[in-house]
Amino acid sequence: MKIFTSLTSSLASWPTTLKSGGKLAVASAFSASLIVAVGSGSADPAIAASPDYYDCAVGMTEAGVAESDAIAACAAARYPEDLGTCVVDVSEFTGLTANSALLVCGRSRRPIEVADCTIDIHTSLLESPSAKVLENCGRSLLPARYGTCVVDIVDATGVTVDEALTQCIRAGYRPWLIQPRI
Hints:
By secondary structure, the protein is mainly alpha-helical. It has 2 domains: 2-48, no CATH class; 53-176, no CATH class. The protein contains 12 helices and no strands. α8 runs parallel beside α10 (131-139) and α9 (111-125) runs antiparallel to α10.
């Protein structure tokens, strides 16, 4: 709210500044208001951006991961809260083990998307846990898109889940289909 108030008060003085012909003054007023607005935040950026190792370790150990494995994984993760959320959600909503979820979530650049992909496919299409779904969601560069592809292809065509998993992971660039240029 402070940012908006500061910017609107600076923007209100623009017509007067423009009439007097001071383009540099407008730019200076705008930059000063941005500096003041951004710099006036009450939260310390180091505290606001600090990773949550505690929730990561507690969540994983409660989900069934060995304490030493949870400690090592959380300590090595760039975003430990995302890793912990991925492991807990996959094990809770799909019936897969927390250890198998940790292996895939720990390798992913987008662990939250991996969890969402796995959960979406399981809840929409499967009645029993499938490690193949988790593995393919983890292999995909864009897990959210991959999950949508699998669910939509199965719903639209009636092919098996395994066939949709295979086709969607292969989607995109296929070098063997490109003709050589002569």
